[in-house]
From TrEMBL:
Protein name per its UniProtKB record: Metal-dependent hydrolase
Metallo-beta-lactamase domain boundaries: 39-232
PANTHER family cross-referenced by the UniProt entry: HYDROLASE C777.06C-RELATED, HYDROLASE C777.06C-RELATED-RELATED
Provenance organism: Acetobacter peroxydans
Keywords associated with the record: Hydrolase
Gene3D superfamilies: Ribonuclease Z/Hydroxyacylglutathione hydrolase-like
Gene Ontology molecular function terms on file: hydrolase activity
Pfam families, sorted: Lactamase_B_2
Entry annotated with the keyword Hydrolase: yes
Length: 272
């Protein structure tokens, strides 16, 4: 399984719109360091058998796919309904055309309903042969459930995201926990034993809706992943500063980071 970090920025990306000359507000991030350029958070799982699963369709999706030379995936998992994780859904039309079929979308019933309310066309039945709009097929799931997507088992993990909820994702030895500020006890148990954990860390100091560094390190002591990768980072999180100060086994993500893990065992069960 190859994991590709398509984007690792917060809802405004880095740099944020603004700055004295209008060229961007970099906050504490060095604009000369290319790994400080962060698009909105998303990852792609590419299995050894050719199946691929995207997690979230942020507003930068087209540019992310082009930058990483990715043109196909069969499924999307939505962690929650916030704009920085949903608003690139229109770009799925290009993938529909490449694979010649609808893309399967997984999320809680509430999240899928929110997406349908904002993008009323996406779950309408496909009328072959062409794709004149993005075409997704809705697959409601429940948090805490384990289901098969394609040929592989995925577990969905309860997360608290300030005034809203979100959903973590585990597939084999990999877990992804974006947009989280609290992890209930059962969620910490569900993450135990994971090898590589990509986790929300918006800034160094406490935040009402996102994890910060000390909280991530506290969770890490409980979960004990071999590798912890910080994502959904804001403009206070300079890449070089983090590399110089983080403990061994913890690192900042950057757009385009990729790594390999063993494929989880394949399943023969059909998706619900």
């Amino acid at each position: 399984m190859k994991v590709v970090v398509l984007g690792c920025g917060g809802s405004s990306g880095v740099p944020m719109v603004g700055g004295q000359d209008g060229g961007g507000d970099w906050g504490e991030c060095d604009p000369k360091e290319p790994r400080n350029v962060r698009t909105r958070s998303s990852v792609l799982l590419q299995m050894d058998n050719g199946e691929a699963v995207l997690i979230d369709t942020g507003p930068d999706l087209r540019a992310q796919l082009l930058a990483q030379r990715i043109s196909r995936f069969q499924s999307i998992i939505y962690t929650h309904g916030h704009s920085d994780h949903v608003d690139g859904v229109n770009e799925v039309r290009a993938v529909n055309r490449v694979i010649g079929q609808p893309v399967q979308a997984y999320g809680t019933a509430g999240v899928l309903a929110e997406i349908e309310q904002r993008f009323s066309f996406v779950f309408k039945p496909w009328t072959p042969p062409g794709f004149f709009r993005a075409v997704l097929e809705a697959n409601p799931i429940e948090i805490g459930q384990e289901i098969t997507i394609g040929s592989y088992a995925f577990t969905f993990i309860d997360q608290h995201h300030g005034y809203a909820g979100s959903m973590g994702v585990r597939c084999g030895d990999f877990a992804y926990s974006t947009d989280v500020v609290e992890l209930p006890e059962q969620s910490l148990r569900a993450l135990e034993g994971v090898d590589t954990w990509v986790v929300d860390c918006f800034q160094l100091t406490p935040h009402v809706a996102h994890a910060w560094l000390d909280r991530v390190l506290e969770w890490r002591e409980r979960i004990r992943p071999r590798r912890t990768i910080l994502t959904h980072m804001g403009a206070a999180m300079d890449w070089s500063m983090l590399c110089a100060t983080l403990p061994d086994g913890v690192e900042p993500a950057y757009d385009g980071l990729s790594f390999h893990l063993p494929d989880p065992p394949r399943r023969r069960l059909a998706s619900p």
